[in-house]
Amino acid sequence: MIDSKSLSCNGETQGASRPQPERHGVASLNSDCFCISLDAEALKREIETDSETRSLYPLILEKCPHMFAAMPVFVSRHQLDRMAVIIRAAQSVIALPAYRDIVLERAPQVARFDAGGARGVFLSYDFHVTDDGPKLIEINTNAGGALLNAALARAQRACCPAIAGMTTGPVALGALDQTFIRMFFAEWRLARGDRVLRRIAIVDENPPEQYLYPEFILFKQLFRRHGVDAVIADPAALRMHDDALWHGGEPVDLVYNRLTDFMLEQPAHAMLRDAYLNNVIVLTPHPLAHALYANKRNLAVLGDPGRLQSLGVSEDVARTLVSGIPKTEIVEASHAERLWSERRKLFFKPASGFGSKAAYRGDKLTKRVWEHILAGDYIAQALVPPGERLIAERQASHALKFDVRNYVYDGAVQFITARLYQGQTTNFRTPGGGFAPVFTDNATGSKPVGANCDASASST
User: Fold this and answer.
1) The predicted structure's pLDDT at residue 23
2) What are the tens digits of pLDDT across the range 327-347?
3) Under a CB-based contact definition with an 8 Å cutoff, are residues 19 and 31 in contact?
4) Helix, strand or coil, per DSSP, at residue 208
5) What is the rounded CA–CA span in Å between residue 441 and residue 437?
6) Angle between the 146-154 and 176-192 helix axes, to the nearest 10 degrees?
């Protein structure tokens, strides 16, 4: 980490060469502010809240050294408010029966199963921030990191006057745990009414080997603190018995699904799939949610003015989505020549992919990869450069890219965070990168924040 002695009074790294930023506005702090707001000791306290989590912070540092960025990302209130408008517009279209008919027509049978009212926890809307407003690059179900990011946000200190009056999201940080737990209880009530929720299983393949395994432990403790027993389980450890799904010696009521086999197609997940289809458990998020929201083919519908008009979408909603979603089309062999010629302006993603796996910038494509894309199920999206955050390290500064994630439930934004990275996509392998809190104006119409970052706070 850079030491505060190498910083000048306005946050510049002495001797560093960098472009002159815009001098007013919250976003200008992404290139002006080199203060380190993360209080590592406070983060440790946030994570290690009881005997079961006491050794968790060292585990994160060892297993995930680039999990947390030391510096925040700054996004204007105007941009965040615009994200919320785009999210509401998308939700309104996704609720239309005609839209559902379109996207479920090509979905596997398991995705058409009525989930009993459960909506799916931790939906995320991921944006790139541009001068032309935020652009929705994808929607995900099963978005990880919410509890880790909540702990990270609570471990920030106001290291300079510019940050002191800012906020980190729509829900007070002290209320986030309650917001998240209410979401799970809401899922249960939608599916089971007044029955008592007794036990939750947090399910993923080989959980201790998962990158976000520390978060599984935090969720287990969160559920238990609110009176619900919880276990972390591999699908292979689940058993059907007496019309119930069991783990160990107790039945499971609700499964918090962290699997990336979104349609439960793998043989190892057959028991979980059967339990879901036989309404033995409440599964959240579930295949229906993925089909409605997260299949990237859906963006070709949500951002197409002609398709939106045919769905009877209002002009205002259609305008919001067309301007807020980069032009997206399904890759088809009949368009191969044109797409190849335009590839430098495109980003290619697998329709049912996750975590940036097998996603490619068009200007990096080889012919071999192009043939793989043509043979697969891919979408082509207009390339929208991500935002940039200058960070200081070893008495120099360099730019990292960032995207902004909105955690959403039932159409409402719960929490906002960012991911800092280098390379084509988010990767959690970048020194100085990782999850980062988002700081913004405290209220709509508040006075713009000047580039008056003070570097008096020492680094951690």
Assistant:
1) 41
2) 999 999 999 999 999 999 999
3) yes
4) helix
5) 13
6) 150
Q: Cα–Cα distance between 286 and 279 in angstroms, integer?
A: 12
Mean pLDDT on 102-118: 94
Q: How far apart are CA 54 and CA 355, in angstroms?
A: 29
Dihedral of alpha carbons 380, 383, 387, 390, sign: positive
C-alpha to C-alpha distance for 204 and 257, rounded to whole angstroms: 7
Question: Mean pLDDT, the chain, as a whole number?
Answer: 88
Query: Could you tell me the CA-to-CA distances from 119 to 27, 122, 146, 233, 289 in Å, in that order?
Result: 34, 10, 17, 22, 7
Which amino acid is present at 21?
P
Closest CA to 128 of 64, 73, 209, 197: 73
Residue 295 has, within 13 A of its CA and on its CB side, a CA count of 25
Going by C-alpha positions, the residue among 296, 298, 300 that lies closest to residue 351 is: 296
DSSP structure class, residue 429? -
Say what the pLDDT of residue 236 is.
95
Residue that the structure tokens 């960025």 belong to = 69
pLDDT digits (tens, 9 = 90+) for 20-67: 333 458 888 999 888 878 899 999 999 999 888 888 999 999 888 999
- Where are any strands of DSSP class E within 248-345? 250-252, 254-257, 282-284, 328-330
> Tokens standing for 28?
């200008």
* Cα four-point dihedral sign 426, 429, 431, 434: positive
> pLDDT band at 352, cuts 50/70/90?
confident
81-96, pLDDT tens digit by residue?
999 999 999 999 999 9
C-alpha–C-alpha distance, residues 201 and 250, integer Å: 11
Strands (E), 184-291: 199-203, 229-233, 238-241, 244-247, 250-252, 254-257, 282-284
Find how far residue 379's CA is from the centre of its chain: 20
**pLDDT at 151 > cutoff 60:** yes
CB atoms within 10 A of CB 97: 8
127 vs 134: CA distance, rounded Å: 6
Per-residue pLDDT tens digits for 291-329? 999 999 999 999 999 999 999 999 999 999 999 999 999
The string of DSSP letters for 409-427 reads ETTEEEEEEEEEE-SSS--
pLDDT at residue 450 tops 90? no
**How would you class 253 by CB atoms within 10 Å of its CB: exposed for 0-12, middle for 13-18, buried for 19 or more?**
buried
